[in-house]
Amino acid sequence: QVQLVESGGGLVQPGGSLRLSCAASESIFSTYTMRWYRQTPGKPRELVAFITSGAITHYADSGKGRFTISRDNAGNTVYLQMNSLKPEDTAVYYCNAYDTRTMRNYWGQGTQVTVSS
Question: What span, in angstroms and rounded, lies between the C-alpha atoms of 53 and 34?
């Protein structure tokens, strides 16, 4: 069972940048699609971006041009670089690993991102 640990969240001013990291407990190289989601109170969790094992990426409209997802397969780590942050990006960000063999999802505990002056 994959365990995921997010880090890199915090408080940043509008226009600033953060890089979130998600460390996996085992190899995510060949069969996992890795995703970042975010959630604010009272709202459903929403997809921010994903990257497949073949490095195909997809971004929600909210992050296009500002966010970049990448993966380090050797280090079992996925990153979300967030630039030009806006107050509406404030949320808890969750890392998700989707096993394409078993169709199981694994979640991290989340990391808080707050964009405020």
Answer: 8
35-39 LR contacts (CB < 8 Å, sep 24+): 35/95, 35/96, 35/97, 35/98, 36/69, 36/78, 36/80, 36/93, 36/94, 36/95, 36/96, 37/93, 37/94, 37/96, 38/89, 38/91, 38/92, 38/93, 38/94, 38/113, 39/91, 39/92, 39/94, 39/110
Q: Minimal CA–CA distance to 114: which of 53, 38, 46?
A: 38
Interval 3-41: pLDDT, tens: 999 999 999 999 999 999 999 988 776 689 999 999 999
Q: In this predicted model, what pLDDT tens digit does every residue of 67-113 receive, in sequence order?
A: 999 998 787 999 999 999 999 999 999 999 999 889 999 999 999 99
